[in-house]
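Dear Dr. K.,

Following up on our conversation at the group meeting, I've run the structure prediction for Thiol:disulfide interchange protein DsbD from Methylomonas rosea. I'm pasting the input sequence below exactly as I used it, so you can double-check it against your construct before we proceed with anything downstream. Let me know if the numbering doesn't match what you have in your notebook.
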Amino acid sequence: MPWYRLILLCLLAVFVRTAAALDSQDFLPPEQAFKLTATAETADKVELHWQIVEGYHLYRDKTKFQSQTEAIQLEQASMPEGVTEHDPSLGEVVVYRNALDVVLPLINQSRETQLKLLVKYQGCADVGVCYPPQKVLLDVVLPAAQPSANSGALNQFVKGLKGLTPGLFSEELLPPEQAFQFFASLKGPHTLQASWQIAEGYYLYKDKLSVKLQGATQTQLTPLQLPEGAAYHDAEFGQVQIYRNQISADVPLLRGSSAAETIKLLAKFQGCADRGVCYPPMQAEVSLDLPSADALPQAKPAAVAELSEQDKIVNALRHDSLALTLFSFFGFGLLLAFTPCVFPMIPILSGIIVGHGDQIGTRKAFLLSLSYVFASALMYTLFGILAALFGSNLQATFQEPWVIAVFSGLFVVLSLSMFGFYHLELPKSLQSALHHSSDKHRDGSCLGAGIMGALSSLIVGPCVAAPLAAALIYIGQTGDVVLGGSALFVMGLGMGAPLLLLGASAGKLLPKAGDWLNATKAVFGVAMLAVAVWMLSRILPAAVTMFLWSLLLIIPAIFLGAIDPLPTSVTGWRKLWKGLGIIMLVFGILQLIGLSAGNSNPLQPLQGMALNAQAQLVEGLSFQRVASVAELEQRIQQASASGKPVMLDFYADWCISCKEMEAYTFTDGQVKQQLANFVLLQADVTANNEADKALLKRFELVGPPGIIFFGADGRERVAQRVIGYQDAATFLKTLQQL
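The predicted structure tokens came back this morning:
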């Protein structure tokens, strides 16, 4: 026998002996190895007790508690010291043996009498076999009042029994055919009903349910339409929807013949037990005898439930190829480049290019633009990954008043240099050193352009739109920062593509010297002042902002010759600039008039001042503000009790798309009519405090704008989520789908 066969035979013998030894060990189920009970002597304290079988141990740092009752919060649990041991995999750990008693204080201000407590723990057998993390949902009865002395012992005994989780009394899991029973029946010659009966303590995944026909048949099924499931965060699949107790769905049939026939229906599904054990994918087959049909109406397939825009993009990230994903996000970036949120970046980059005067060339202008766009794309990627992984929004952080004021001042300084008040340049000694250490196209200005690009992406960049939100959701759910980060980077490049075209053409389109160059620099100086006013509008009163806009129109209009007479012989260009100056002057004066009349909208300065007494002021929607998750849940419950749907709008003062929705979409008459029966709620997350972050996290949003709809049953209509700006016509289509 060859030597390698002998070695293989020996290894196989050792493996078989080891496997037999392990198999000979009768390992207990986790609920028997670690028997958990919960009791409550008072309404603000729960006592948990684990009875740990000899030869087993629990990890201290794997023991966690979470309240599933909204009105009850948990304080820090009081846990014993434990024993320090060396684990081969985890190193030095603290474990418990024999028994573990934990006192869990509660914050129960509303004096609830029922607590749903999620307990997570993990343990091992001493022989080296570890159980997966366990999740047990306990229904703990909290006493409403202090028990009397005569019946105290009996009451505590009864409450101790009620606090036990039902899973502790059933040592074995139910077989899959008992935990999840599938039924199918006919509701007529053209409709069947598919139903699943789910045992208590078990649930089915919505996206794992499907039905189809087997064998040769002239009948077809329309797509399975399932009701909204309960939101659930699964350790394996992330955020999912699940069903408990029972789920039924009607499935219309498309029959190709009116003759009677027998069809075989195959159902596929997958579910889990609450204790943390999941079943493999299951299937069941049912035969149905279709009766003959008198007529064959053309059955229309039920409309497939649409996903929200960002959910469609998330699914594409999961399934599309890398090349297709990157190409798609580049296209998304191109579309975002033409949104009002990105427009302020154009005068910033143009000012950087024009600021170089007659020394600018095509190559230099393109390098400056590339540095600006590349740094901006890198910043989108960086803050996107951080926001998805750690739940922070750097754009919101950079909307602090002092940050806005500092950078507005920076743009004022840059604009004044455009007007020739002074020149911004490096010290001569540093310029000389850079010149000798680098070529003429890398004199340090590319670094400055890159810094401006990075800061612009945070301060004047876009609000959260569907592609950006989808990438952040994907990273947060999967942890795949490579794919998600690559998509964000390519999206940033797409947003900067028009800026690259501007840089590539600057050397040819912009003049090299002369009076025209000075006029061009002045124009971009005014544009930078406009960026500064636009940024200050987030923190200044509306009246002050309107006054600044009027100054920005009137003063440049005077420099354009709006009040100067034209000579008899003048060029057409001079007439064009004078006409533009007159328009700016008139509009600026109208803003001052509107400001004195109490208006604060610079785009409609004379709003409400019409002579016609019947003219009505166009107003937007009237929202009720919610400041916390608890207040939101209370308002939704109140609306559900009244049979009314709810619209929740996420808003921030620094969100340009939010203000667009407020000015153009929410003022539309048809939109207001469609929302007449809705309870309108608004979460103002301008401050970005802990309550604001909790509201955003509740719906896995990274920032505004975002609109969430709830039906009259109090459940969210996920497919109709609105992320980013929608005009009135598009928003009406969304409302009609509710």
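Two things stood out to me. The longest helix spans residues 362-390. The two ends are 75 Å apart (CA to CA).

Best regards,
J.T.
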